[in-house]
Amino acid sequence: MPINYVLLVSRQGKTRLAKWFTTLSPKEKSKIVKDVTQLVLARRTKMCNFLEYKDTKVIYRRYASLYFIAGVGPQDNELITLEIIHRYVEVLDRYFGNVSELDLIFNFERAYYMLDELLIAGEMQESSKIAVLKAINDHDAVEMEEANEEKNK
Amino acid sequence: MLRLIYGEMMGQDVQFGAIYALKLAQSGQTVAEKRAGYLACYLLLQEGNELNIISNYHHVVVALVTLCNMTLPDVIPSMVSHVLAALSHTHESVRKRALVALKNFYTLDTDLVFPYLDRIKDSLYDPEPSVMSAALGFFAIAVKDHAGEMKELVPALIRILQQVVDGKLPKGYLYHGMAAPWIQIRCLMIMAQLGHDDLSAAMTPVVLRAFQKASQGVDAAFGVLFEVLRTLNSFHPSIILELCQSKDAARNPLLTIPRFATSTNPNLKYLGISMLCQVNPDAWSDAWWTEDLLKAVVEALESRDAAIQKRALDLLYRMLTMENAQNIIERLVFAYFQEQDDVQGSGGVGSQQQQQMPSSFPSRKEKILGQILDAAERFGPSEEWYLSLIFDLLVRGGSTITLQTTEKIMSVIEQGARSLGYDNSRLPILAAQQSMKFLVQQDFSLSSTSHNHPMTSPRQPAPAVAYFVFWTLGEYGDKMTAIAEENDEYDLSAVLEVLARCLLVNQDPLIQSFVLSALTKLSIKALPNPIPVSITTVVRQQCQNRTTTAPPAAAASLLTVIDVQQRAAEFLMVADLAIS
């Protein structure tokens, strides 16, 4: 039932973020990334956001120049997965303030942290936007404090 | 360390960095370092990596997150009690993660976690929604194999769903006006698993309530609507059968389908068609099925979007009845041949990849083929129709049709088809007759199929046709006189004659072995009567040809040649038996 992977791919086909919730060898992973990226980039705008890849479903959505892609099992609910993607983007957007591809390139570890708050082991764990942002901001505050202490020493 | 993660993201193998990640997680001086360390640990340490053993016990103390994602089955026994203790931790994010970790344990080693189900169940009543949601996640997995033992979950599920639908959760869980759609969907999924028998009726009201709320929403609400439909359809059939008759839109979820199926938004259209796929075939009724819907389905079939088209084909397969079978199967056959063109059309790269990767799961094409055969067997209108379909598939079907496919068809002919349109005693005999006609049409040469269509089948003709043709002749060749109009044309000696000619014309050892086994079977059936000398001579000749001419180079075909000789020898023995 959980999501198998989340990929962020630019329109040029560059991977911007890849998170796997299943155990696969690097070779299998790169094959999936390559195939799925190809499939998704070939879709036209007037088509629906779902497609089949082997025996899994791929759900994608384009935001500006980035494609957000999630792979799920055949029995999963596509529509709700699409909304998970959307919620992730909302959280990113709120955090960075109008998120852009560059934000993600330079702060990709933060994008991972946020995904971790949202999804654990591939399942939606915290659907509340407020709760996610609060957790992230708490982390950041502690980090800042420590950085300041370091400076003062 | 972050650079390392970046490397992993780009698809490099950076296992060498795992140990450093671990060190950083343990000894990080600042939170920033620790965070980076944990992130790297999680990304790098996958199940099976032996480093997990060292790392695990730190994680229980410091962070359960990582535990959720990686564990060796061997270490679970020592972990379970620690994690269970974490269930009563004061901080909700610890409880939440403990539940996810337990779920992970459960999938790895069910028996270890199973005794503690009652304790985990308490988490369903946790005041924190996210913990409750995590508990639902656990049961969504656990309920799969143990639906029977988990019936007592139902009251709790009903309560949770009721609460969520009534908007009792904190505001933060609203998603675009929809109350906690993820929790709703999880509840519905578990209910679907539990609702096979008498429990359905108790759950239906709250499911309908969720439906009514969701039908006013957007975005995530669509996902909930789909789940509601799926859940209702997996309940006891009487539930959906009753609901589908209702004219009241609030009581009949099927009435929302047209709104989606006819939508111009491709996502909603996809949703509508997928919804139709979920509907129990018995629940199709005029109460909700409209002309518009039919139009929408036809439109989806013609859609340029492959995803929608596939869904629509699946739907067609589900809609099968005796009346529409012919049209639908025609459509499926069309899609079948379409599918092949796609593969060939995509050119060099695609086909190369396909050859490299022998797929373990059925391809789209194989799936359609299975659907066609199944549909034809269950709903076909007549024997003639069935056989012409089979011959068409065998001859033009390409490499997807294997000898196994043929064997499946044979067993249908042998054991009888389920469709009421077939006369099962007539089917095999007719099959043999068609096989004779086919041979005559092809001038007895089965290799010639490739001459006729050099473009479509550049490879060798599929041996599947030959296998089928000679099998039917061997099994039923002697019975054809029972129904043939021109009796003399199809009596046993005529069949033997034809088979002998096939043996002469086709030099391919595989085909010859098919012919020979048919010959042997028939001559046993003919036993009191002698086998015409002309035929035995042909076989003897062929057999000698094989021994004198140099055997083909390939070792594999050498085996088939030996097989041919063996079969020929057996036939001759039978023939001798008849003479003596």
UniProtKB/TrEMBL annotation, chain A:
Cross-referenced SUPFAM superfamilies: SNARE-like
GO BP terms in the entry: cytosolic transport; intracellular protein transport
Subcellular location: Cytoplasmic vesicle, Clathrin-coated vesicle membrane; Golgi apparatus
All copies of domain AP complex mu/sigma subunit, residue ranges: 3-141
GO molecular function, one term: clathrin adaptor activity
Keyword Membrane applies: yes
Signal peptide: none
GO cellular-component term (any): cytosol
Keywords recorded for this protein, A-Z: Cytoplasmic vesicle, Golgi apparatus, Membrane, Protein transport, Transport
The family this protein is said to belong to: Belongs to the adaptor complexes small subunit family.
Record-given protein name: AP complex subunit sigma
The gene coding this protein: VAS2
Automatic annotation (TrEMBL), chain B:
Domain Clathrin/coatomer adaptor adaptin-like N-terminal: 1-546
Entry keyword Iron-sulfur: no
PANTHER family: ADAPTIN, ALPHA/GAMMA/EPSILON
Keywords, sorted A to Z: Membrane, Protein transport, Transport
Listed GO biological process terms: intracellular protein transport; vesicle-mediated transport
GO cellular component, one term: membrane coat
Presence of keyword Hydrolase: no
Signal sequence region: none
Residue ranges of coiled coil: none
Name by which UniProt lists this protein: AP-4 complex subunit epsilon-1
Localization terms from the record: Endomembrane system
